[in-house]
Protein 1
Amino acid sequence: MAVYFLDTSAVVKRYLQETGTAWVRTLTSPASGHFVYLARIAEVEITATFARRRGRPGFSTTQARTALGLFLQDFAQDYRIAEITVPLLRRAALLADAHALRGYDSVQLAAALEVRSQIPSLIFISADDELNDAAIAEGFPVDNPNSH
């Protein structure tokens, strides 16, 4: 059993067929016995991702609604959620400055750091190379689903 923090670019692969989908599905399967943390903002980011892709070739409105429904069910039942607090946002601002991260990426990293303060063995998973570089600089073991 391992403990993982997945950012949105990683967890979305559980619901969309992309490079790394099989690996993420195995990692996040309840049968794996792993604990998977997401930041609360993943709910917003995933909803936005599916809404923006809805109706595009290869992703019908029905598929988008089904994928979102599955994610929301898993979000409520399977994932452990890192809540967003004012101190976490302040830390995110410092991380954005230190690593030149996009806003929500810095919130993802700050949330992972908060979880790691309780679970030192936390592994950071992202499909975003810049965010992974920042996570490595913050001392995380990192994996990228695009490598699988």
Note: The longest strand covers residues 35-39.
Protein 2
Amino acid sequence: MIPLKISFGIAAAGMALAAGPAPAQAAEWPTHAITLVVPFAAGGGGDTLARLVAEPLSRELGQSIIIENRPGAGGNIGTAIVARANPDGYTLSYGTNGTQATNHWLYKSPGYAPGDFEPVSRFTVIAAALVVNASDERFKSLAQLLAYAKSHPGELTCGSAGNGTSSHLACELLNQMAGVKIMHIPYKGGSAAMTDLLGGRISLLIDVMPNVSGQIAAGKLRALGVTTPQRVASNPDIPTLSEAGVKGYEFFAWDGLYAPKGTPAAILDKLNAAVNRALQRPEVKQALESRGAIPSPTTRQSLAEFGAEEYTRLGKVVKTAGAAID
């Protein structure tokens, strides 16, 4: 891992850094490599998606993009590093619904504020699916599962990757919107939850498509619905949860690009245009969609508005669920 180095000068030099790049510098940007801080471990789902976008984005910008993994505290550590970075366009953040929305409600002090960043563009919307063990003959549809949950409150269990994770909040939102009581079982990671679902020790799991699609294809899991507003291209036969019986249910992961507050608009505009071009490349779309990630670029303003809506919406889910991480 290459350590992030931020130079701090003294006197006038320090003031110049704080002021950010001059207009001429912004116009010439980028003149050297860009660091993209990914606040998750190398090899994980977020890291994989970030790299899939970074490579074509590098070609669009004509400069190398160096991925720097700074995992920890649900993404807070790496995200806070970018919040404090020089706003010159050379240190950027891979952001998610976790780092940009739910973490502010889950953690007392995440180390940064929503206003510390300039939204650049969303990358993808990542579908999740509600899955049950394929050998469980009781639940061949969402309607059957919800009917059972209503007549047997507290009996069914929903596993998650841990308290406050997206898989936890997705279960809580299902309880809230469907009027059922399905018990939450937190695990230390999604793999452990998957193991227990396959072993018949929990009733269901709501997890992102990249984590469940292989088991669905192998016939070991049955998907009762996806969490996105539209069906997923890679599995068009799976209905949305809204179609299947919980009208209006939406809970999906998303990711995007963020820059430190104060980054010049000229740089942000260049970045936004480059991201949009990169995500339109057929090979990039295919690579992302094969992993259950739907390319979903936005304007800067659209991401700002979307992020604000998600911050409020997910905050309500967290507060109603009583979820918190010390």
Note: The first helix runs from residue 11 to 19.
